[in-house]
Amino acid sequence: MIYLDHAATSFPKPQPVIDAVQQALTSFAANPGRGSYRLSREAHAAVDACREKAAAFFGVKFPERVIFHANATAAINASLAGLQLEAGDHVIATTFEHNAVRRVLERMKKEVGIKVSYISPEMTGETTLSQWEEVKTERTKAVVTCHGSNVTGTILDLEPVQVFAAEHNLFWLIDASQTAGVLPVDVQGLGASAVACAGHKGLLGPQGTGLLLLHETTEPAPWLVGGTGAHSHTAEMPDALPERLEAGTLNVPGIAGLAAGIDEINRYGLNEVFEHEQALAARIIRRLQDVEGIDVYGPGADQSRLGVVSLHMQGVDGHEAESVLDQHYNIAVRAGLHCAPLAHEFLGTAPDGLLRVSVGFFTTEEDVDAFIQAVIEVYEGLA
Questions:
Q1: Which chain regions cross the lipid bilayer (predicted)?
Q2: What residue ranges of the chain have pLDDT lower than 70?
Q3: Which of 210, 216, 267, 354 could be joined to 310 by an S-S link, Cβ 3.0–4.6 Å?
């Protein structure tokens, strides 16, 4: 199969990732930090090794500020819940946000009474400082921004947000699910309060892995409470990190695989990954933008962008096209709203959404050319 749904999860995984998961499962998948016996120590060492690699990779000053989660959604929930916002507090986000952000904010609006404002960046990712200033209130406490859109491939320009958040001493959460492992993300350098990302997308790790990366000054309250192995005598979660934010048994095989994924990205080089994926996206755009009846959304072929391209075939149902590509061409793409309804409202493509193709580092020009030919044939056959 030609797999072109890397914005959802990367596949196939590199062999070292598979080997690391298998080794953990067969050799030391005991409970880390829950005993002094050898297998528990080995599991703990594997977790610590990944924590240190992630800290170096993302510019986190102290490894203990790398917090493991099951996915980016859990990391985002933990980060925002940890703020302990009150009724009347205000949060600003963008219309490019995934439901992992939007639904959390909307639930907090309903249950806590916070207020939420959404601003719309340009298709190329620019916002102005004045856009952020215009919606700020006396009760604004936090800003949440995705780094890259999972619908359009837009890379958000973080500089105005960085200036705005720093000037007003706001908590700033970045959702780097689409950019981690593709673009540099430096927590300390950006001055972000926290960065959440998936481990199973650009970082090439297994599903069931996610990261919350904390700035040295960020001290969120625990979102999930429970066993931590140490400090069991206290009724409250311990003060020390990472234990304070990591209740329950960690996914040792997944974390071992994530460490191997980070090693692979370091071996390839972030610049190589980004240039490869951007070139493939540009190839798709250039070939399809001149096909009458096919509309391509997002930054142009010559603009900086992620390897995510969404399109609409006039007169063709996107879900039907997805099914035909799967069943007759053995090509995996995704149709619909992509868990980002605000982005589609901004594009004018709600409620039906778009057909999305997203490439990865192992996608080839031949894969992309096969998709281009197939989608043209599907359009001509169904329109």
A1: none
A2: none
A3: 354
With a CB cutoff of 8 Å and minimum separation 6, the contacts of 65 are 55, 213, 214, 215, 216, 218, 241, 242
Q: Compute φ and ψ for 331, nearest 5 degrees.
A: -120, 130
Q: Given this model, what pLDDT does residue 26 score?
A: 97
Q: What is the pTM assigned to this prediction? A: 0.96
DSSP string, 195-242: EEEESSSTT---TT-EEEEE-TT--PPPSS----SS-TT-SS--SSTT
Cα 181 from Cα 7, distance rounded (Å): 12
CA atoms within 13 A on the CB side of 299: 24
3-state class of 12 per DSSP?
coil
Q: What are phi and psi of 243, to 5 degrees?
A: -55, -35
Q: How far apart are CA 76 and CA 145, in angstroms?
A: 11
Same domain, 122 and 262: yes
Spatial contact of 183 and 197, defined as CB atoms under 8 Å apart: no
pLDDT of the residue at 200: 98
77 and 147 share one domain: yes
Domain that holds residue 311: 2-10+269-382
The pLDDT of residue 34 = 80
